[in-house]
TrEMBL record:
Pathway: Glycan metabolism; pectin degradation; 2-dehydro-3-deoxy-D-gluconate from pectin: step 2/5. It comes from Ilex paraguariensis. It holds the Pfam family Pectate_lyase_4. Binds 1 Ca(2+) ion. Required for its activity. Keywords: Calcium, Lyase, Metal-binding, Signal. Belongs to the polysaccharide lyase 1 family. Residues 125-322 form the Pectate lyase domain. SUPFAM superfamilies: Pectin lyase-like. Its cofactor is Ca(2+). This is Pectate lyase. It catalyses: Eliminative cleavage of (1->4)-alpha-D-galacturonan to give oligosaccharides with 4-deoxy-alpha-D-galact-4-enuronosyl groups at their non-reducing ends. The keyword Metal-binding applies.
Length: 400
């Protein structure tokens, strides 16, 4: 790519993303990754296809509302086996109220605590202000398509010691700590909860988790945190903005069970006002693939305790501040003599406006086998097509 093309790309992306963020802060929806047109004419038979494997799997279907559960077959990456509530009934949320101890039928809390698999949808737009953290049971899908669903100004979602969860199409913001309260986590059980952290989505010892096409911002702690031996997770197509510590993946440096952690972070847009942890990793294996980063105030990708980080096909656009050009940050008291052996690589990433990634460890493909979960698209794809991240404006009877 010529110097002129790179400069033009930076200007186009910056101008478009800035306007998208302003719009999103007023009416959260999807944000486009590029204002440029496709370099070739789209197919007449499948004009909606973009090269994003998740979206291409279901968004071309004008009957998506009838075929909602098809989404469960579209996951990518390490969380690709998450089926959520695919094998259960639909549960329609009709009531935005919340009673943490005795939730009423028709509320979101009543839906997520049930034992059986459920595909949870909403019958109208809702702003849900939870009074305590929403503790989910296994085999659940929260599907916000077709309605505007917002969780805000209260504690948010907790995925603890459960499996097979899909969260799609929810706007999550301004989540705060709560606790020292009685909360129901099963139809036949409630008990005391200690103080929660204030995460948007907290994954604790969870497995087979997929978070897709959500918009997240401005929570008290992390936007999405996964700790305590959680694994088989995909975080894809999300739009994140205005937050400090975005994603923590790994409990602490001494918690060795996180060595089995495998997380895919794909096709996300890291937008305006983000500071650090996109993500911050401990132990484990992390595939960071085909994301767009539009500036960070400290660093984009960081870690400690020797995680394996496989960064492929991303677009990193550094801010103008000369002190924040580096993508990476390692936290290690022994310094370079220790972290020089950590396997961190940048493979096919596009570095713009002075961004740079500091690699370390081995360069052989075999060293990244456990941190490889899907085929990376060329970073140029993210500038040649017009994919979307964040919640989608899906209308019944139309392609989403």
């Amino acid at each position: 790519m010529s110097a002129f093309s790179l400069f033009s790309l930076v200007i186009l992306l910056h101008a478009h993303f800035t306007s998208s963020v302003r719009l999103l802060m007023q009416t959260p929806a999807s944000t486009r990754w590029s204002s440029m047109k496709n370099t070739t004419e789209p197919s007449r038979t499948e004009p909606c296809r973009t090269g994003n494997p998740t979206d291409d799997c279901w968004r071309c279907d004008p009957d998506w509302e009838t075929n909602r559960k098809m989404l469960a077959d579209c996951a990518i990456g390490f969380g690709r086996n998450a089926i959520g509530g695919r094998d259960g009934e639909f549960y329609v949320v009709t009531d935005a109220n919340d009673d943490p101890k005795n939730p009423s039928p028709g509320t979101l809390r009543h839906a997520v605590i049930q034992y059986e698999p459920l595909w949870i949808i909403f019958d109208h737009d809702m702003v849900i202000n939870l009074k305590e953290e929403l503790i989910m049971n296994s085999y659940k899908t929260i599907d916000g398509r077709g309605s505007y669903i917002e969780l805000s100004h209260g504690p948010c979602i907790t995925i603890q010691n459960v499996t097979n969860i899909i969260i799609h199409g929810i706007y999550i913001h301004d989540c705060v700590p709560a606790g020292n309260a009685i909360v129901r986590d099963r139809p036949d059980h409630y008990g005391p909860r200690s103080i929660s952290d204030g995460d948007g989505i907290s994954i604790f010892a969870g497995r087979d988790i997929w978070v897709d096409h959500c918009t997240l911002a401005n929570c008290k702690d992390g936007l999405i945190d996964a700790v305590y031996g959680s694994t088989a997770i995909t975080i894809s197509n999300n739009y994140m903005f205005h937050h400090n510590e975005v994603m923590l993946l790994g409990h602490n440096d001494d918690f060795l069970a996180d060595k089995k952690m495998q997380v895919t972070i794909a096709f996300n847009y890291f937008g305006e006002g983000l500071v650090q942890r996109m993500p911050r990793c401990r132990h484990g294996y992390f595939h960071i693939v085909n994301n767009v980063y539009t500036g960070w105030k400290m660093y984009a990708i960081g870690g400690s305790a020797n995680p394996t980080i496989n960064s492929q096909g991303n677009v990193f656009i550094a801010a103008d501040d000369i002190s924040t050009k580096e993508v990476t940050k390692r936290e290690n008291p022994l310094g370079y003599d220790d972290w020089k052996a950590w396997n961190w690589r940048s493979d096919g990433d596009l570095m713009l406006n002075g961004a740079f990634f500091k690699p370390s460890g081995q360069d052989s493909p075999g060293s990244y086998a456990r941190a490889s979960s899907m085929v990376a698209r060329p970073a140029s794809l993210l500038t040649d097509i017009i994919p979307s991240a964040g919640i989608l404006n899906c209308k019944i009877g139309q392609q989403c």
